[in-house]
Amino acid sequence: MTRRTGCEGCGEISCTSTMEVLGNDVSKNVNTAYDRVQSRGMAACLFGSGGTCCRNCNMGPCQIIDGVEEMIGVCGATAETVAARNYIRTIAAGTAAHADHAREMIFGFIATARGESPHSIQDEEKLHMLAEVFGVETEDRDKNDIALELGKLALAEFGKQEGTQTMLNRAPKKRQELWKRLGVEPRGVDREVTETMHRTHMGVDQHYKNIMLQGARTSLADGWSASMLSTDLTDIMFGTPVPIRAQIDLGVLKGDMVNVTVHGHEPLLAEALCLAAQQDDILALAKKAGANGINLAGVCCTGNEILMRRGIPVAGSFIQQEMVLATGAVEAMVVDIQCIMQSVAEVAKNFHTDIITTNYRAKMPDAIHMQFEEEDPLGSAKEILKKAIANFKKRGDFYIPTKTKFDMVVGFSHETINYMLGGRFRNSYRPLNDNIINGRIRGVGAVVGCENYKMTDEGHVKVAMELIKNDVLVLATGCAAQALGRAGLMTPEAATEHAGPGLAEVCETVGMPPVLHMGSCVDNSRILIAATAMVEEGGLGDDISDLPAAGTAPTWMSEKAVSIGEYFAVSGVYVIFPNLPVTGSRKMTGYLFEDMEEMYGGRWDIEPDPVKLAQKMIAHIDKKRQALGIDKKRERVLFDMEMRRDLTSGGPLKDVGCHGPA
Ligand code: NFS
Fold first, then answer.
1. Could you write out the three-class secondary structure of 186-246?
2. Is the pLDDT of residue 423 over 70?
């Protein structure tokens, strides 16, 4: 087999650790997604790529060519109808994934409130904040009583048949009114997903503009409700992240320990594994097997969840899931739901590694299933660890690229940004807004989402470098955040090295990185709340669409990314992806790229080149600065002592000793 170091016309491997592992003899029989992209050898279907292949009934599949009369659907469906239907089905799938994850977290939250889980309520302040949003009485009540009532109300949001989603009232007032006027306020989360599937069934909704309103409504049910509930209840239960040092990349695996990687999304299992891995009986077992303990490491968004809250290292992001196994050093990869490639079981066959599925919804051929019992999380976690420990002695040759692990400071929740930039005594977004107004920070860019084997794996880095070089503060989540961590952009020193002078000055003063890790993909809801806080702080307009801000998922892969992009655009943000499956219809591209801006103040755009993509984000940020009247030449205003004192007056970063280099 040829050892791959990149390929033409598809993704290039730039990641040193990946190349090291694939270049080592230990992995010589491993076939990876990079190989498959190359060996497929056929160009992607134009109809599929452009969104105009309809297979929603058995008269087709119909491949539609926009503007060619004979090439409409058998039923008469036009390119824009088909593209819109396909597009909102993608949004519904993404929303369903986030919503089902959120529902599980709420079940776990309710069990915790009832005292039926090994966890407890960690963030009472946030519990009270959310209780107020839902109108739950808090005075003189036990935290578990409040949590139980809140949990039940949160669960009811999914099946709500009347009224609209409660969490919408956390958006800026003007935005709420706009959604009401346009009739896109989501009702029940599940109802929106169901209605999307219904309306896109053969012979139901035929008008692309009407179809797109349902797409907007469904995505809002994701961002402003399901994902946001998941983030908030998880924070209340496991603790709201504060800045913490951690490490990332394949080099975090340990030669002398039992390596257990946790891959997927729901942190309930991962948190239970963290607790179980510290128990004396488990540690004694590991020792008996000849290991120096258990090394837990994350993959994908489960990785982000335990990284943000516990500083557990991340072994790899989506694009590295096969490489984690190809080291030969992993005793068990424990998976739950979403973004787990079927190929991991095939890769594991080359080694002693067990792939352990844990969720009844997500089983795999050639994997071991050990159901995670919600009634006994710790017991389930211990059984899984015992299985991994038993594998340690079977480990054969392995190769861990020890030089490739990167330090980073992570844990930038909305609350942390508030404390850090506002200082302990102020807790506000005022300094952030002021620094945007005075131009030290040009604006804010969200770099989020997946990785994709058919695109360069440097996409995130190129975008983020261009943004920070131009004084744009970057907020990152998901696998994008992991890619940026691997690039060394999540240390305070990265600001001095790579950021423009204004952004570098702010970062140096506060001691924060120019790229802030805000969590997993459901945690994109943190960015919505941060944007709302910036609006409410004043001076940057009265809606999210007024902010000098933009968002991208430069190497997106999952349907969840489309839902995320849509709810950001519908919330007023300029969102740019490298491609979108709508380009087979001129009316649909016109709608996404132009009409949406008139309707929502935010819109979609596409640009495959990462640097040009970043430049388009910057151009949008500048357009917003101009509209706000803050576009005058951005002066270099040096911080005086008083301003420095204000910004460094405390906050959680200082508390955990992260002011210095990571
Ligand atoms: Ni987001 Fe996370 Fe990664 Fe993409 Fe998958 S892990 S939820 S979907 S690939 S960022």
1. CCCHHHHHHHHHHHCCCCCCCCHHHHHHHHHHHHHHHHHHHHHHHHHHHHHHHCCCCCEEE
2. no
pLDDT in the model for residue 416: 85
Q: What are phi and psi of 244, to 5 degrees?
A: -150, 145
| pLDDT-derived band at 387, boundaries 50, 70, 90 | very high
- pLDDT value at 659 more than 80: no
Residues whose CB is less than 8 angstroms from the CB of residue 266 and which lie 6 or more positions away in sequence, other chains included: 101, 104, 105, 302, 336, 337, 359
CB distance 97 to ligand 1 below 6 Å: no
Q: Whose CA is nearest to atom 5 of ligand 1?
A: 339
Options 3.90.550.10, 2.60.120.10, 1.20.1270.30, 3.40.50.720; CATH for 53-238 is: 1.20.1270.30
Q: Tokens standing for 432?
A: 């952030």
Prediction pTM value: 0.94
Probe residue for ligand 1, chosen from 262, 318, 555 as the CB with the greatest number of ligand atoms within 8 Å: 318
Q: Is 623 exposed, middle or buried (0-12, 13-18, 19+ CB in 10 A)?
A: middle
Q: What is the residue type of 117?
A: S
Domain residue ranges of the chain, discontinuous segments joined by +: 53-238, 250-394, 417-633
H or E stretch covering 507: helix 501-510
- Is the bond into 61 cis (omega within 30 degrees of 0)? yes
Report the nearest atom of ligand 1 relative to the CA of 300.
6
Q: What is the CATH number of domain 417-633?
A: 3.40.50.2030
CA nearest 534: which of 612, 488, 491, 475? 475
Rounded-to-5 percentages of helix, strand, coil across the chain: 50, 10, 40
Residue 101 beta carbon below 6 angstroms from any ligand 1 atom: no
Q: Please, are residues 188 and 158 in contact by the beta-carbon 8 Å criterion?
A: yes
Whether ligand 1 lies within 6 angstroms of the CB of 450 is answered as yes
Task: Tell me the DSSP string of 92-155.
Answer: HHHHHHHHHHHHHHHHHHHHHHTT-SS-----HHHHHHHHHHTT---TT--HHHHHHHHHHHHH
Distance from Cα 448 to the centre of ligand 1, integer Å: 9
Phi, psi of 650 (to 5 degrees): 135, -160
| CATH architecture of the domain formed by 250-394 | 3-Layer(aba) Sandwich (3.40)
Distance, CA of 263 to CA of 319 (rounded, Å)? 12
DSSP SS3 for 570: helix
Helix (H), strand (E) at residue 354 = strand 354-357
Q: Are 218 and 193 in contact (CB under 8 A)?
A: yes
Q: At residue 660, what is the residue type?
A: G
| Mean of pLDDT values over 517-543 | 96
The per-residue pLDDT for range 121-174, each reduced to its tens digit, is: 999 999 999 999 999 999 999 999 999 999 999 999 999 999 999 999 999 999
User: Which atom of ligand 1 is nearest the CA belonging to 317?
Assistant: 3
Beta pairing class for 294-299 and 314-316:
parallel
